[in-house]
Each structure stands twice: as C-alpha cells, then as structure tokens.
Amino acid sequence: MKKEWFFDRVCGHSLVAYTEDGKIVEVGVEFGGVRHALGNIYKGRVANVVVGMQAAFIACGMERNCYLPQGEGVFTTYDGEGTAQKLTLKEGDEVLVQLVKPARGNKGAKVTCDLSFVGKNLIYLPRTDFLGISRKIVDPAVRSALLKEAAKLRAEGEGFIVRTAAEKATKRHLHIEAEYLKRVYRAALEQAQGAPVGTVVYREYDLPIRVMRDCLGGGVTKIHVGDGQLYEKVLKLARMGGLGEKKLSLYTGKRTMFSHYGLDAEICALADPRAELPNGGYIIIDRTEAMTVIDVNTGKYTGESDLESTVYETNLLAAKEIARQVRLRNIGGIVAVDFIDMEREEHRLEANRVLEEALKADRAKCRVLPMSDLCVTLFTRKRTVNDLSSLMLKPCSHCTRQGYVFSDAFMAMQLRSAITDCLLQGYRTAVLELNSGLMEAILKRRFFRDDLESRWQGKRVYMIPHESFHEEQYTIRGENGKILTLPPEAQLLY
User: Fold this and answer.
1) Strand runs (DSSP E) across 243-305, as ranges?
2) Helix axes 140-153, 171-192, angle to 10 degrees
3) In terms of CB atoms within 10 Å, which of 215, 262, 317, 458 comes out highest?
4) Is residue 329 left, alpha or beta, with left meaning phi > 0 and alpha meaning psi from -120 to 50?
5) Span between the terminal Cα atoms of the chain, in Å
6) Residue 231 falls within a domain, yes or no?
7) Distance, C-alpha 310 to centroid of its chain
8) Residue 408: inside a domain, yes or no?
C-alpha cells in the first residue's frame, strides 16, 4: 500500500494530509495564531469551586474559565527542591493545569492537574504514580521488558506510559527521552515561578511536528513538503527518527502542492454533510451540540435481488465509509448511526462488526455498542481537538445561524489556489471579485503575505469587494494590459 504524507503552510496556517493509495485518510488543519492548543500547560487561578457540580473553574487567560472536575481537585505542588505537597483547591489558589479538551460551543476548555509530557516513545507523568503500555504492543515478553525498563526510569510518585513506537526503541533511546521530558517539566516549573496568571509555561508542538512525532512509523512511502522552512524542520526530525532523507520530497512546482496532487477537492468535500458510497448510496452526517447523527440511504442503488440484500450491502459499505469519515473529519463524542432497517439478525450483527472492525484503524479510541432492534448503533470516539468542520465552517449570516458556510481562513486557501492557477496562465495581473467581508478579513489577517514574497513575486493581485456576493461567491480573471479599468473600490493586495 502506498502511504504518503503531505505537509504545507497555507495562508499562514498548517495543513497536513495523509493518503493511502492516493485516497485521503486523515486531514489536519491548525490555524495560525491559535493560542489555546491541546496539551498546553497554563498557570491558572481558581476562580470558584462549585460543590454542586463537583468541579472547580480555573482562570487561565482564556475567553472562558476552564473546567476542572472534582477528581482533579486534589493536586500536587512542588517546591524548588522537588518536594511534593498535597493540597485541596480553594478559591484564589494558583495552579498549573493542562488543557485536555478544547472549548466547544458555549463550553469552556477542560483541564487537568495531572500533567503529561509526550515524547515519541514515552509519555512522562510527573505527578502520577502509574506505569502503562500501549495495547498495540501485543508480545507479552516485549511488554514485560518495556515496563521493567520504564520502571527504572521513574522516581517516586512519577509515572510513564510506554507508546507503540517504543517497541523498536533501544534502552539508550528510552533513557535519553525520559531525561529530556523531565527537563522540560522542570523548565515549566521554573517558568511558572513569578509568572502572571494566564502564562503558557509549556506549549505543545505545532501540527506538523506532532504528526512527525506521533504518526510517522514504518510503512510510510513518501513525505511531501510544500514549504522550504518547514522542509528543513521536517528533514531534521526525519533524520532523528530514522526515516532518512530519501522519503522526503520538497515540492517546488508552480501550482500549490495540494492542487497539484488533486487533494484540494477532496478536502473541500469534507465540509459537505453528504458522503457518497461506491454503489450509489450515500450517508448524511449531521452535527449537533450533543452528538453527531449519521443517516444511511440507498440512494440510486436498487440492488440485484431482494430488498433485504440491497439494504444489507448498502449498510456494509456505509459502515466502512462512516469509520473513514469520522477519522477524516475528526468527529468526536457520541455518534449515532441510523442504518437502513434489516430484518435478519445476522445481518445486523455483521453490519455492527464491520463498523467496529473499520474503526480499529483509527488512532483515536472508539467504543461501539450493539445495534438496537431499530438498526441504530451508538459509538463513541475520543475527542482530541475540534472536528475539521468547526475549523472549515462558520455560521451563515443568511439563515439565522441554522446553516454554515466556509470560514474566512478556508476560503482564503481556495482563493490562493485560484489566484496561483490564474497567474500561471501567463497573466501579469489577477483581478478577484469577492464578498466584501471576506476581502476585509484577507487584508486584516494578511493571508497571502508569503505568496506575494514567493510564487506571486512581480505579479499584481487586485481585489474588488461586493456587498451582494455570498461569502463563498467569487470570480477571477487574468489581465496583461498596462492600464486597467477598475472600479474605485478596487484595492491592490497589500
């Protein structure tokens, strides 16, 4: 199987895609300037303790106070000598907390006092007396040896979780990584001394680096990088991880990298609630505040024999596609799947089994419940970061917040490809007509700054705002004339 990763910086944001045999399996987007990343550690202050909710709320410098469950209410502080003290949280206390679940909707972020520092082979738990190991390491002898080695690396009150990658790591590598993670923790403690509330004392790596650390194991065929500075960083990490330089490729084409490899359209399709099945059926993915609901439909497929066989075949295809879509869109929380009604119990059991089996390829933990008599299956998927659609979409101003349109940042990514393709046709100037609000966002956030200094150097891009244009509506044309006839509201890009 051909396994490829694609890394690029697009309009100041990080965009990562993973494909298997040319088909996208995972997509990650991290918008530039996002301060509150999962895994960051903040110096916070207890704003209030709510006994009735068995929780505390921590001010960490975010828009909303963070939620700390009662199980986290007893925490450990360390003085300069590393001496541990057990304290119970009360209003006004200052405490180090780590973001474990991002803010969503009207809910603030969830935090923990049980800090963790993630490496390639180990997760260091400085405040948790615990030893664990990845379930994907199945050899009993290997598991036992790795746990014994991890036990040697920890001091009293500390813990380690052995990650899957450690199966191929040497004792020396484990020791070096453990010492490094401990130094990172001590540095965070030192930075917290005297720092104001809201200070980020430890910042998790950005998206491309996390992918290099967590996802690039054996079997990767090629790694494509579309940005020169990012390439140097990825190259350094690839050497450290033993991937070698031969698998790395710096994309130098004139088109944008994702357009060149035909991935743009696939990524944009992830904003569509409808996903097609190979037989002509389809699924509808509907996000709500509490859960995600997926409906299965036969669509154009009419089958070749009886209704039960038609429905059964469609449900099996849907089960595999649902597992792919929740991974692609990074859908977390509770997912309810309304399969098409099947009369035979063995068919219901098999559809559930196929779904469960397909979800095993997902790095996020999933738990599938038995299918009900109504052919509805519930499963949970661990929510790690915001799902992809929450980054790609924003509420539509034309339908009283009941619908969604592409976000400004995601529209800018599409316009970047359109402008690049226009200029590659030999034009010296591109004239872009677009929604006035989107134009304002592009100018304010300087989405195209890097492109003007590289692939668009020596070219001109004019933008013409229209109040009547829908947020996703735009036109583009190329010009070679020295004198252009443009309306007075036209503006040269930067």
Assistant:
1) 248-250, 274-276, 282-287, 291-297
2) 40
3) 317
4) alpha
5) 45
6) yes
7) 36
8) no
Query: Measured between alpha carbons, how far is 41 from 95 in angstroms, rounded to an integer?
Result: 10
Q: What CA–CA distance (Å, rounded) separates 451 from 148?
A: 52
- Domain range for 106: 41-114
- Point out the domain boundary residue: 192, 218, 242: 192
Specify the residue for token string 């359209």. Answer: 265
């990172």: which residue's tokens? 184
User: Nearest 5°: phi and psi at 335?
Assistant: -125, 125
Here the tokens at position 10 are 């697009």
- What DSSP designation does 71 have? G
> Amino acid identity, residue 309?
S
d(CA 487, CA 485) in angstroms, rounded, equals: 7
Q: How far from 175 is each of 102, 209, 272, 386, CA to CA, in Å?
A: 32, 21, 47, 34
Closest CA to 430 of 486, 363, 472, 384: 486
What are 56-112's pLDDT values in tens digits?
Answer: 999 998 888 999 987 654 544 444 444 445 557 888 999 999 998 878 767 888 999
Instruction: Give a yes or no: residue 401 inside a domain.
Output: no
Whether 322 maps to a domain, the answer reads yes
**How many Cα atoms within 13 Å fall on the side-chain side of residue 153?**
30
Element (H, E) at 153: helix 140-153
